[in-house]
Here is the input.
Amino acid sequence: MHSSNFTIPARNIRSSRSIRAGLFLAIITAAHWLARKVSERRNLNALMELSDEQLKDIGLSRGQTESDVHVYSRY
Here is the structure.
């Protein structure tokens, strides 16, 4: 017969919870990073669609839009 008095030590439960919390945090961080990169790419694509005259209206040149020095956002 098998005993039904099986218990898990408390330290294993705590370490399991901290591992799950760390994994959850890593997933959230990766999702935020990916969302930021998608947004940056969307903004760059929007700038690249503008004509030279439109870029001049907002104070940019084609060379500035192709560099990674400037950070643009569109909301």
User: Anything to note?
Assistant: The chain is about 65% helix and 0% strand. The two ends are 67 Å apart (CA to CA).
